[in-house]
Q: What sequence folds into this?
């Protein structure tokens, strides 16, 4: 993998992790309301899982394949 590709993956991974943290904060704030919007909570949680999956895929691409 080229160094430029590696740097792009690192930048994308950092952005995804930041977005994941932001969604976590938004979910927590929404859940603390007296009458939380359950549909919105469900959507945010689904988006958070999608972001986590994307981050895991990128981490998988960054790790070298080691055949033991």
A:
């Amino acid at each position: 993998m080229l160094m430029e590709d590696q740097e792009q993956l690192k930048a994308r991974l950092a952005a995804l992790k930041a977005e994941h943290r932001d969604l976590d904060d938004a979910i927590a704030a929404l859940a603390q309301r007296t009458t939380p919007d359950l549909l919105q909570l469900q959507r945010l949680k689904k988006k958070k899982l999608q972001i986590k999956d994307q981050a895991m895929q990128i981490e998988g691409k960054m790790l070298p394949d080691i055949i033991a």
Notes: The two ends are 20 Å apart (CA to CA). The mean pLDDT is 92.
